[in-house]
Design a protein that fits this description.
Layout: H1 4-13, E1 39-43, E2 54-58, E3 64-75, E4 78-90, E5 94-101, E6 104-111, E7 115-120, E8 125-130, H2 131-138, H3 144-152, E9 161-167, E10 170-177, E11 180-187, E12 193-200, E13 203-215, E14 218-231, E15 237-252, E16 267-268
Parallel strand pairs: 8-16
Antiparallel strand pairs: 1-2, 3-4, 3-15, 4-5, 5-6, 6-7, 7-8, 9-10, 10-11, 11-12, 12-13, 13-14, 14-15
Length: 269
């Protein structure tokens, strides 16, 4: 149970491998606002010498989403497997979670568009940070929209693509924002995002979605794998591996509850 706080940090920091630029919603080639309709439209940049490629990524449309999941990670010699994770999400608004192991809750928390609050049940303390403070702590820029995209399995970065290619049974979408380079692979058969590789400086992030199962009229990735790799000033390489396995996922229009409180005797850290 001593590693539970890392599991909680995964929830709020799963995208912290490479991103240093503030997210901006593109109003051109990849339209973020079409997410609510279950599709993200993608088309290749205009080039006279190239054939134009255009397709839509099939995303999951929902008002509320709940999961019962298992999460594991390995960082150096430390790690944990099969920790319990329960998530509830209100689209574009709230993410609520509890994490623990062996039937014991180690952490619970709530994420809004403005802040992240994590309660350490074991030592009776809590941490509350704005996304600005959280970004400063991680040394990267984090926001709610980026985290939501990771959980539901859509393109994490909505920057306009610099190139799109069709190779065998996949679309390859490359994005470039300053020194941040992103390669997205989309299955041409079901139009679902299957992998993302991003790099910036001495940091790389590899994300893979698999185990797609029908969820109402959508396909949902029941397994997500993440690898973060960074080279330190001394030349050593630190690597973190994370696997999220959903046991049950539900999407509904019915309003869900998000019970959350901080006991008065808990201390803030």
């Amino acid at each position: 149970m001593k590693y539970w706080i890392v599991v909680a940090s995964i929830i709020v920091g799963i995208t912290s491998g490479c991103k240093r630029h503030k997210m901006q919603k593109s109003s051109t080639e990849i339209r973020v606002d079409t997410l609510q309709k279950g599709e993200v439209s993608v088309s290749s940049p205009e080039k006279k010498t190239d054939e134009k490629i255009q397709f839509s990524i099939k995303d999951v449309d929902f008002s509320y989403l709940t999961t019962r999941s298992k999460v594991g990670f390995k960082a150096g010699k430390s790690g944990i497997d099969n920790a319990d994770l329960t998530l509830r999400m209100k689209k574009d608004s709230l993410i609520w979670f509890t994490a623990g192991q062996f039937g014991i809750t180690g952490a619970r928390g709530i994420i809004t568009r403005d802040s992240v609050t994590i309660v350490n049940v074991l030592d009776r303390s809590y941490t509350q940070l704005s996304f600005q403070q959280l970004s400063a702590r991680f040394g990267i820029e984090l926001d709610f929209d980026l985290l939501q995209a990771i959980i539901i399995g859509t393109m994490p970065w909505k920057y306009e693509p610099t190139s799109i290619a069709k190779e065998k049974e996949s679309y390859l979408v490359h994005q470039q924002k300053g020194t941040l380079g992103i390669d997205n692979q989309i299955d041409a058969g079901n139009n679902k995002l299957t992998s993302v590789k991003a790099s910036q400086g001495n940091r790389t992030l590899a994300l893979a979605f698999s185990d797609f199962n029908a969820l109402q009229s959508f396909l949902f990735p029941f397994t997500s794998q993440l690898q973060l790799q960074a080279q330190g000033p001394d030349g050593t390489t630190a690597q973190t591996s994370i696997e999220l396995r959903h046991k049950k996922v539900d999407i509904t229009e019915e309003k869900q509850s998000f019970p959350f409180s901080i006991p008065s005797k808990y201390t803030r850290k």
